[in-house]
Amino acid sequence: MSEPNRTELTRDVVIVGAGAAGLTAANELRRAGLSVAVLEARDRVGGRLWTDVIDGAMLEIGGQWVSPDQDALIDTVAELGLETYSRYREGDSVYVGPDGTTHRFTGEMFPVAPETERVIAEITERLDAMVAEIDPDRPWAHEKAEEWDRISWDAWLRAQTDDDEAVRNLAFATGSAMLTKPTHTFSLLQSLLMAASAGSYSNLVDADFILDKRVVGGLQQVPLLLAERLGDDVHLGRPVRTLEWSGDGVTAIADGMTVRARFAILALAPVLYNRISFVPALPRLQHQMHQHLSMGFVIKVHAVYDTPFWREKGLSGTAFSPYELSHEAYDNTNHGDARGTLVGFVSDQHADDVFRLSAQERKDRILESLSHYYGPEAKEPVVYYESDWGSEEWTRGAYAASFDLGGLHRYGAQLREAVGPVHFACSDMAGAGYQHVDGAIRMGRLAASQIVDEARA
């Protein structure tokens, strides 16, 4: 017997999650003539893409950048009629060394001792050669995958050199900056996958490549416009509590709504699967795999100033140091905005540590770190905001999920494997575009194409 006021729907496909992956899949399926219902727990679409106005400033609280190799995202942005603009990068970059000295520089190589520079160049070349052998869609298939998954990223680097400054700078490109976990907690193989997803290790450490362009008005417009096309097929505030599945199809039971369908796509971070009761339970291997995946943690710090004062000093805004609380920061000024915005990042254990402080002390510590790059003016923003995805009920970390030591080789091949009528799509399981919106779009397309093929079989 139905509950009063419970909406009952029947569709070809029910999609759980209205982020870029789920909305891409829904649009692809509709285009193929299949009916869909998208159930989203939040009161908005976009998932880890979120543009909001905070104290009068438009801030991209979640993902925001577009890289030149992200074809799926670039094509989607163009198809939706959105415009992009380049990140400001004119002038000197800044590097803070182990002794706390601030160095200005231009070009790709930051100012370190000649021997350290040589070591970084040699290991980077070695990593690029290793990455070139990795298929980002099948990293576990490499002949050395098991060996590379047994050793931590930090341990492997320290086996290559005893130059601590070289190790710290090589390590944080995939550690603090991308996987947002301490570098002793994930494997060399996981790090190689992160680099392979961007085309090479060199690409990954090149800020001008990875952080190339932004979308005018914010990247959340991508899911907003995709959702607009779906109209009433997108249902907000509908967390799915139970998913019943069999060879005959699925029943998704959400707050106030039940959807019966032939197929389901779980388009949410895999760390959230345990919020859903599966009837029957998912296979043992799936349960085990999901226990070896966890989110990283990063605070994205937005500091808005009356003017982009660093530009007057001849600075590009690009700054980094493995010795600073904010390990990297960039000019994040919005298109056409007279005010200046800096974005900084505090990740992994550093993020844990500052959240043990009061809000005021945390702000003071972070702005102090930014001032080491840009000068004392950085301590006086007119708007200050911290994106804390770790406390988001329907995200629980950032930027994405990655495996613990040994997990990628052990379980990676099952990550995208459908379970009966239940398919999976998320940036966390992408090859190319892993952890990025580009990867989410690719995974949404892949899941949709698999279902179209099955529906026509």
From TrEMBL:
The keyword Amino-acid biosynthesis does not apply. Keywords: Oxidoreductase. Its cofactor is FAD. GO terms for molecular function: oxidoreductase activity. This is Putrescine oxidase. FAD binds at E40, A41, V240. Substrate binds at F345. It comes from the Bacteria. Belongs to the flavin monoamine oxidase family. Residues 21-451 form the Amine oxidase domain. The keyword Acyltransferase does not apply. The lineage of its organism: Bacteria, Bacillati, Actinomycetota, Actinomycetes, Micrococcales.
